[in-house]
């Protein structure tokens, strides 16, 4: 140790003392969420795949030079080659175009369904959350009853009812069917958040510390509510896509020549039976990829939004 | 007095995303037989980490022993394997945790939880175990023990649960009990009961206690020796009398002043210590209390003082003890 | 507890009634006449058919009659099959579907939570990655994709595994696997996160402080508590299995209830659609009730709060 001198035992000035107050770098919520999301390689793979698939769903049907409905009887059941990258089906339609065209519908359905679930769920859950205990309890009972009806059963029933024989199901009906019970988890989630936040100790604490309502909303309520909702939305999309694909696979999808990934897989199943495996592989692979991407992104988001998991 | 525990230069750190957090920075103390040692300090001062490290209960990683020894009856706990620790935990050293509401398994019957450790150590039959559980509940004065053993934690109040926790810790007659803030989560009236119970059991069972707390009222009641920790270091240590009658470190003095007193005047406000303890991921070079101390000197910023003994068992680590600090001492009239 | 059970039971009945009602009116809201598509038929035959299915009566009467029949366990006649009633078809198809569903559920229940627990215990290590890869495949690959791939790449190459059909145990292996994979994955993920949470609880520290072995801490304290959320989603899992079986039965050509259902959709056999839907709902509501009771038995806290203490 160095020599101790008399001066060293003089009082320290205020500045010297304040200079010592080094704090851990404070971390803002959203940038931190993004930082953690970026660290999650799987989630990033999902995000990149979603972007790629979306781009291809928009551009894909245009770049092959074939349309999704054009039938070419001289090129029936052609295996993938340089002309037909994914091959053709039994009517000689280009499967590359049809697959991306189907992806377009699948994504559209997923996103629309999520948007509707989101809107209905927030409205219903929000109203239940702020209503009197009695109204809230009745609303939640109703939601519970609706939710205990098996999702896909309703979807199937709806598409049976609202489409006449052999004509396929319209996009509107498919989305209606998708969302008719699936808004419930969102509503329950939102209601829970609203109730929790109504009582939350930390917003009470802020209030007693003199924070105004807007500040409470911005700093506490929105970050805490938005996280779980965002995750729920991300996970609703693959659920809707999956339901639609199942519908298509059961022959209840969009009317031909329109296609979704599910109906393409259904067509491909017939092809597979006669040895034309490529007809099912591409749509099946693509739908799995879409499901994978949204699921890992949703998971990553959930982990990133939970500061308790901060490492 | 024979020492049952001898902690020497213990250093415990955590690896985090931002770097290493030095939670315990070179502390040494001893616990004698039948002695009660209190470790006091604000939250985050390293007292709970110290307690857990004696049982090797810290999650490793991220925690790790960076240096030093924890000698329990001459054997170094730092070097013990997990398997060896299993023979020490619950049988020779036991622990009572802060929050009785979360420290008991919600899906297991109380009786079972009490004797579970014993059944492992002593191979009891079911009937004997049940008898023992009832006996333990009687010992900690839980009414209707025969009925209570078959209940679940949520059927107990906070105070009753803490009694159960104590029964659970006592069941195999440990030589050392570590009580980590045993009364913090409880009502004031219940606090006193729990402390009395611990004292009573200590006399009956001849054990030593390490009492971790931030409540100096609890300390005065129970302990023989007091260790004051700040930012992972021991800043003052002495007997209860030393600490309460003759505190030497400015932090101890402030800590004592912040205890609410019954004879306080109506308009007198509670004293509290301004500021917050430093973050230990960049531990200060000098005295960690520097920025909150009323008597901070230039030397404090960069140098940590060595312990200065005021009596055989009483020391503090403060530059004010240095002969050169006479003037500051006088003008500030610390003591 | 009795009060709670009663309440739960009443809720189940209401749910069931709601499903029946919705299904009934939906089916009768279908524009056109179920027999219109059958080509020209003599008016007498048409009248007779109308009478046979009660379609000549006002809608509310039809509804009440249908409800009355249901209470007596009569699902009505099939509109397309002249030999079998809906009850016959359910009797024929349900045991097959039930076996398939039960096997898939057992498969998922054995491996799902185990994988999830392993993943949590070895967080960010090899077992974690492996089980999470399995889980991600499980939730990303729809059962119809999994089913077709199993047929294409497994059944065609492994001689003792048949491509489809029903009868012996070997017929059930691939379909059970394809059907059970998604619930398995869901359970594994749920178990993993709930296990990670439980492992951070104070009572785990308490258990360790008793000197228990790691194994005992995990089995008796961690798993016991971590499995609760998994039990609570069993209802939804069973519901998913039910619907998943439509697809799987179609792919593997299994003569179960799902196959009848899919066929009835294909040829617009309204009474059969209605009957199977209601029957599915009944099974599901029963299962949900069962799951609730199970949950009550495994979580002592629920038992008590519902008793009103």
TrEMBL record, chain A:
UniProt keyword annotations, A-Z: Cell membrane, Membrane, Transmembrane, Transmembrane helix, Transport
UniProt subcellular location: Cell membrane
InterPro entries with a match to the protein in the record: BP-dependent_transpt_permease (IPR050366), MetI-like (IPR000515), MetI-like_sf (IPR035906), OppC_N (IPR025966)
SUPFAM superfamilies hit by this protein: MetI-like (SSF161098)
GO cellular component, one term: plasma membrane
PROSITE patterns linked: ABC_TM1
Gene Ontology BP terms: transmembrane transport
Superkingdom of source: Bacteria
Transmembrane segments: 42-63, 105-130, 142-162, 168-190, 229-256, 276-298
The keyword Cell membrane belongs to this UniProt entry's keyword annotation: yes
Domain (ABC transmembrane type-1): residue spans on this chain: 103-298
Membrane topology type: Multi-pass membrane protein
Keyword tRNA-binding included in the entry's annotation: no
Similarity comment: family membership: Belongs to the binding-protein-dependent transport system permease family.
PANTHER family: OLIGOPEPTIDE TRANSPORT SYSTEM PERMEASE PROTEIN APPC (PTHR43386), OLIGOPEPTIDE TRANSPORT SYSTEM PERMEASE PROTEIN OPPC (PTHR43386:SF22)
Name the UniProt record assigns to this protein: ABC transporter permease
Protein source organism: Soehngenia longivitae
Automatic annotation (TrEMBL), chain B:
GO-annotated biological processes: peptide transport
Superkingdom of this protein's organism: Bacteria
Listed PROSITE patterns: ABC_TRANSPORTER_1 (PS00211), ABC_TRANSPORTER_2 (PS50893)
Annotated ranges, domain ABC transporter: 7-256
Major subcellular site: membrane
Annotated Gene Ontology cellular component terms: plasma membrane
CDD domains the record matches: ABC_NikE_OppD_transporters (cd03257)
InterPro entries given in the database record: AAA+_ATPase, ABC_Ni/Peptide_Import, ABC_transporter-like_ATP-bd, ABC_transporter-like_CS, Oligopep_ABC_C, P-loop_NTPase
Name of this protein: ABC transporter ATP-binding protein
Taxonomic source organism: Soehngenia longivitae
TrEMBL record, chain C:
Membrane topology of this protein: Multi-pass membrane protein
Domain ABC transmembrane type-1: 94-295
Compartments where found: Cell membrane
Matching Pfam families: BPD_transp_1 (PF00528), BPD_transp_1_N (PF19300)
Record-linked Gene3D superfamilies: MetI-like (1.10.3720.10)
Predominant subcellular localization, coarse grouping: membrane
GO cellular component: plasma membrane
UniProt record, GO biological process: transmembrane transport
InterPro entries documented for this protein: BPD_transp_1_N, MetI-like, MetI-like_sf
Coiled-coil regions listed in the entry: none
Record keywords, A-Z: Cell membrane, Membrane, Transmembrane, Transmembrane helix, Transport
Transmembrane segments: 9-30, 100-122, 129-153, 173-191, 226-252, 272-298
Entry's family note: Belongs to the binding-protein-dependent transport system permease family.
Protein name as annotated: ABC transporter permease
Native species: Soehngenia longivitae
Organism phylogeny: Bacteria, Bacillati, Bacillota, Tissierellia, Tissierellales
